[in-house]
Design a protein that fits this description.
Blueprint (H helix, E strand, L loop, with lengths): L6 H6 L2 H7 L13 E2 L1 H8 L3 H9 L6 E2 L5 E4 H9 L13 H4 L11
Antiparallel strand pairs: 1-3, 2-3
Helix pairs in contact: 3-4
Length: about 110
C-alpha cells in the first residue's frame, strides 16, 4: 500500500523544499517586513485585485515570493513605491508602454 502524504507535509514541504524559497539567515534588514495579502495591497494602492496582480506579474510593483504560486506584498515598500511616483522599481523598472496597455488577449492592440 502506497503511503499517503499528509496535508501538513504538502503545505509545509520538506526541509529541502523550504530552503529553496527562503534562507532565514538572508533576511537581514528585511526581518521586520510587514507582509500583507493581495486584498489589503489592492486597498493600499486603490486598485482592483486584477490590476494589482497585473502590476506584480509585470514586475512593476515590489513583491515577495513565498513559493512558485504564492506572493505577498510589503506594505512599506508599496507606499514608498507610490510616493516616488510608481512605475519604476529597483532592478527591472524598465517597462514598455505596450506592456501596460495590453488587451484581454495579452497582446497590445494595434490601433
Amino acid at each position: 500500500m502506497k503511503k499517503r502524504k499528509r496535508s501538513s507535509d504538502w503545505q509545509h514541504g520538506t526541509p529541502f523544499e523550504k530552503s529553496m524559497w527562503h534562507d532565514e539567515t538572508s533576511w537581514g534588514e528585511n526581518a521586520n517586513m510587514r507582509l500583507i495579502q493581495a486584498k489589503r495591497a489592492s486597498e493600499v494602492l486603490s486598485v482592483s485585485l486584477a490590476r494589482l496582480y497585473e502590476l506584480a506579474r509585470l514586475g512593476i510593483i515590489p513583491v515577495v515570493r513565498l513559493g512558485p504560486r504564492q506572493i505577498r506584498f510589503d506594505e512599506d515598500a508599496l507606499t514608498e513605491w507610490a510616493k516616488h511616483g510608481g512605475l519604476t522599481t529597483e532592478g527591472n523598472g524598465a517597462v514598455q508602454l505596450t506592456e501596460l496597455t495590453r488587451g484581454r488577449s495579452g497582446f497590445a492592440s494595434a490601433d
